[in-house]
Write a structure and sequence with these properties.
The protein is mainly α. The radius of gyration is 32 Å and the shape is rod-shaped. It folds into 2 domains: 2-79, Orthogonal Bundle (Helix Hairpins); 82-110. Helix 1 crosses helix 2. It has helices spanning 2-10, 18-29, 42-78, 83-109.
């Protein structure tokens, strides 16, 4: 909304009302960009560039924050014991016991 009002104040030739400026800002940030309204003056085009880069940056930050939250939750869940590692430890213990039993049987037959 701020960029919509500012573009109205800066480039009144292209934006007759603040609402038209807000419409332009929303379609620019969402990358829809119908092209029905565009800034004609250089200052308006500079503002449009800042708005586009800011919108992309905002989306990148939000996406990164959401992904980070998922990863952190998964790490908290895994802080206990890893079920795969636990199962491998159990299987290793059973294998060691079987090897010891076979070694004892081999000594008995010698």
């Amino acid at each position: 909304m701020v960029f919509g009002v500012v573009i109205y104040l800066v480039d009144r030739d292209s934006f007759d009302t603040p609402w038209l400026g807000i419409w332009w800002a929303v379609q620019t940030v969402t990358t829809v960009g119908y092209g029905d309204v565009v800034p004609d003056q250089t200052v308006g085009q500079v503002m449009a560039s800042i708005l586009m880069l800011g919108g992309l940056s905002l989306l990148a930050v939000v996406t990164g924050a959401i992904t980070s939250a998922f990863v952190a939750q998964r790490q908290r869940d895994m802080m206990g014991e890893d079920p795969v590692a636990k199962r491998l430890d159990e299987m290793t213990a059973k294998l060691d016991a079987l090897q010891a039993e076979v070694a004892g049987l081999n000594r008995g037959t010698d």
